[in-house]
Amino acid sequence: MDIATVNALPYEDFVNLLGNVVEKCPIITAAVWSGRPFSNLTALEAAFSEFIDTLPESGKEGVLRCHPDLAGRDLQGGTLTHESQEEQTGAGMDALTSAEASRVTRLNEEYKERFGFPFVICARLNDKATVLRHLSERRHSERAQERARGIEEVKKICRLRLRALVRDDAQSKL
Asked: pLDDT per residue over 37-53, tens digit each?
C-alpha cells in the first residue's frame, strides 16, 4: 500500500495492519496514528522512532520485554508472531545444531538474568553466526548501553517491517 492509503486508514485498520511493526506493541502504533498525515514512508518511520525515543527508560525496557528469545520456546513451539517467525527463520535460528541450541538457551538466560529483558537483534540483517556472536559479546555490556542498543535494534526491525507493508513512493516513481 502507498502512504496515501496509510493516511486514509481508520484507526482500527491502521492498528490492525501496522500493529506489530514494533513487536507486540500495538499501543505504539495507536499513538503514531494520531500523527497522520505522513508525507512519505520516511516520515512514518520517523514517527515510530521518535515515539520510541520519547519513552521513559522503563517504557523502553517494556518494549524490549515484548520480544521473544531468539531460537527460544516460541520458535520451537510455533507461537512466534508471523513477522518474528519469518525473521528468525531467515537468519537460520530454526536450523541450530543441538550444541548451538543449548548454547543459545544458556546465553539467552544469562542475558535476561543480567539485564531483565531479552536479547534483541534485527535478525533480518544478520545470519546465525553473527547473531550468536553478538549474543555472546553483548551479554557483557553495561545495562544502559545494552538497553540503548536493544532499542536501536527494535527501530531497525520496525523500519524493515514498515518497508514490507508500505511502498516508498519515491522508489516507485523511479
From this structure: 999 999 999 999 999 99
Q: Is residue 153 part of a domain?
A: no
67 is annotated as an active-site residue: yes
Region for residue 24 given its phi and psi (left: phi exceeds 0; alpha: psi -120 to 50; beta: otherwise): left
- The 10s digit of each residue's pLDDT in 66-121 is 999 999 988 888 899 999 999 999 999 999 999 999 999 999 999 999 999 999 99
Out of 67, 82, 134, 140, the active site residue is 67
Identify the domain containing residue 92 by its residue range.
63-146
The alpha carbon torsion through 77, 94, 154, 166 (nearest 10 deg) reads: -90
Measured distance CA(2)–CA(24) in Å, rounded = 24
Domain identity same for 44 and 72: no
List helix spans (H) across 41-142.
41-54, 57-65, 73-77, 82-90, 98-115, 128-138
